[in-house]
Please model this.
Amino acid sequence: MNDSSQIPIAPSLEPALEAARFPTEERVDPRVVFIAALAIAVGIVAGFVAQLLVHLIDFVTNLSFYGRFSIAPASPLDNHLGAWVIAVPVAGGVLVGLLARYGSEGIRGHGIPEAMERILTSESRVPMRLTFLKPFSAAIAIGTGGPFGAEGPIIATGGALGSLIGQVLRISAAERKTLLSAGAAAGMAATFGSPVSAVLLAVELLLFELRASSLIPVALAAAAAASVRFAFVGGRPFFHLEMTGIPTGEALTAYTLLGLLIGLAAIVCTKLVFAVENAFEKLPIHWMWWPALGGIAVGAIGLFAPATLGVGYQNIDHMLQGDLAVKALIALTLLKLISWAIALGSGTSGGTLAPLFTVGGGLGGLAGFACAAAFPSLHVDPRIAALVGMAAIFAGASHAFLASVVFVFEATRQPLGLLPLLLGCSSSYLVSLLLMRTSIMTEKIERRGVRVGRGYATDFLDGVLVRDQMQTKLLSLRGSQALSEVRAMLAADPRHQGFPVVDDQGALLGVVMRREVLDTAPGPTRVADLLHRPPSVAFDDSSLREAADHMLRENVGRLPVVRRDAPRTPVGFLTRSDILAAHHRRLDEIRVNPGLAMQGKGLLQRKQKS
Model:
C-alpha cells in the first residue's frame, strides 16, 4: 500500500486499511526448487532400489527353482522341477499372505491403484512399512513364479519413498503428492529406462494435473532414476525391434483397426481380473490364504507352459523379433492371461504392465500373422502389430493413453513405430472409454467410493477475470452514516446482503452484512462501529479462481473489488453467487448448437410457412 499516506482517512473510522488482505497469485516460486531437489534425491534412491529389487527377484528365483544362492539373472523357464514346480508359487503365496496379514495389507495388488487411493483420500500419506514390505513381498511373489512384472512394485516402492520423505519434512499435502508421484515415475523410469513415459504416467494416473510446480520435480526425478539405470546396465533399448521401412497407408489402416480389437481385449482382461477377484471374495477362508490358492493355478499352468512363470520380459522380446510360431504365441497369450488374472485376483503382490504387454503383444502378433496371410497386399508386419498390441492394450486397460504410446517408443527406440502406435492406442482408448467407465487402475478404488477424475483441463475459473463477473452498480455505505439512517435504507431494498463501507473521501474501510446492521443491539451508532477486521479485497484483474480461494482463506462470502493502481477505491463487488454464475459460460461452450446447414433449413421452412 505505497500510497496510503496520500488519501486522508479519519482516524476514528480507519480499521487499519494497511492490513487489508489481498488475493495471492499462483506462480512458480523458489519453493519449487526445494521440492525439485527432494525429487531428484528420491529419483536417485529409487534407481538404486530398482536395481536392488531386480537382484532380489533373481535371488529368490535362483533359490526357489534351482536351489542355489545367486543374484545372477535367472528365469523359471529352464527349471527341472517337474510337478514340484506347482509347490513353488504356492509357497510364495503363503509367504505373501503372511506378510499381508501381519505386516501390511497394503502390499496386496499391483501398487498403482493403492497409490492413487492414498493421493485421493489420505493426503498422499503412505505407511512407512510399505516402503520395505512392498518390494520384499513382490520379490517373493515374482521370484517364486508369479506372472508379474517388476515394474509395479518398483513404482509403488518409489511412491512410498516419496511419500515418506514428504511426511518427515514440513511440506504441504500438494507437495507431498508431487513427491509421491515423483517416486512412482522414478520407479518406472528405473525399470525400463523410459523417463518421458514415466512422467506421462504420473500425470495421467497420479498427479491429476499438469502444472509446472509438480511437473518439473517429477520430470527431474524420472531423469535421475533413468540415469542410475543407464549407469548400471547401459543405454540399450529395453526391448529389441528392428524397423527398416515406413508403414504404408494400408498397413496404418490395419493397425488402427487392430487397436479397436485390442481395446475390446483390454476390456475383457479388466473384467476377467475383477471377476476372479470377486470369486475369491466369496471363498469361506481368510484372504491371507488366497495368494496360495492362486499359486496352485500359477504353478499348474507353469508346469505345462514354463514361459508363463515370472516376469517374462524375454517373451515380449521374442514377439517383437518374430521368433514365436503361431501355436506357441496362442498358448503363451492365453495361458499368461489366465495365470496373471488368477494371481492378481488372489490379492498377491505384483505388477500389471509386463503381463498386459505380453497379452497385448501376443494378440497383436496373431492378428498380424492372420492379416499378412489373408491380405498380403496390406504389408502388415506381425512384429509391428505386436508392438501396437502391447501399447494399445495398456492404453485401453489403464486409460493412460499418452504414457502407453510414448512408453513403447522409448522401450524400443523406434521412431518409425510412433505413427502405428498413435493410431492403435487412439482407437483402443476410444473403444475402452465408450464401453468401460472405469479402468484396471480405478475399478477397485471406485468400488470403495473414491471418485477418480477422468479429464484434465485448465480450471475454467482461471480464465475469467473478476472485472468480467463483478457487480459494478455498488450500494456503498459511508462509515460516518448513522445506523438508524442505514437501517431504513436497507429495509426498503432487500436485494443485497453485503455492502462495502467507505469513508467520506470514498476510500474503502471494510464490509458489513445486512444482518449486522439490522440486528445490532443498541450501542453502536455509526456504520464504522460495526467494522472489526481489515477488509479482504480482490483485484479487478485477478482470476475468479484466485478470488474464490481468497474467499475460502478469509472465510467470507463477498469481496470488494479494487484496481491495483488504486487499491483504496472500490470499483465493484464480487459474491459467491457471481462466481457460480460464471459457469453459465462454461455450459454454453459445451452446448451443441445448430450448424449452418440446420440454420439454413430452418430459415427455408420459415419462408415456406410465410
In short: Strands lie at 477-478, 498-502, 508-513, 538-539, 558-563, 566-575. The chain has three domains: 30-233, 249-290+302-447, 460-579. The chain is about 60% helix and 5% strand. Confidence is low (pLDDT under 50) at residues 1-19.
